Amino acid sequence: MQKLWQSFGVYDWGIPHLPELKPLIKAKVLQKNVYLQPPAYEFTALGKIPVGTLPLHEFNQIQEPLLLAKLTELSRQAELAQVIKSLNLAERLVDLRLYRAQLASILLHNLYYLRIEVDGLILHKIGVTKRYALRAGYANNYPTHP
Predict the structure, then answer these.
(1) FRET label pair with 39: which of 16, 56, 82, 94, CA 20 to 30 Å apart?
(2) Residue 128 bridge partners (DSSP)
(3) Taking Cα atoms as reference points, which of 93, 90, 129, 124 lies closest to residue 110?
């Protein structure tokens, strides 16, 4: 993926059809763009995640439906196991509870990104916090939105 990105994606060039691309197309990280001449493949938003080029907002737009789809599927499996009185009902319920707890933890945290410029160097820091000050739009008691 990284080599493909460095060879084609960085320059916004179409990727010619190669047999090796089939798994990437199936995984929806590449898609055919018929408007390119000649038609070629390009990175999808999902394909930009592993190479670190997808903006955070777009990453969230991709991840949220995936997280909710997984929750829906686990709920469906637990309900089905309960209806048919399956032997794996306890396992399905544990899976659902664990996933709900993980999702709740994700939703309680805020992702932050800091860009610090010092002596001509640029430092980047990405992290998570539960701190109210950052959730409310304040950092170091300075409002981010006047």
Answers:
(1) 56
(2) 111
(3) 129
- Residues 102-139 as b/e (b if ≥16 CB within 10 A, e otherwise) read eeeeeeeeeeeeeeeeeeeeeeeeeeeeeeeebeeeee
What tokens were used for 18? 């190669």
Q: How far apart are CA 95 and CA 111, in angstroms?
A: 25
Higher pLDDT, 73 or 106: 73
Q: Are 126 and 113 in contact (CB under 8 A)?
A: yes
Question: Using one digit for the tens of pLDDT, what is the confidence trace for 71-83?
Answer: 999 999 999 999 9
SS3 5: helix
137 has a pLDDT exceeding 60 = no
C-alpha 132/C-alpha 71 separation (Å) is 27
Residue 18, CA distances (Å) to 12, 26, 34, 112, 132 in order: 18, 13, 16, 39, 50
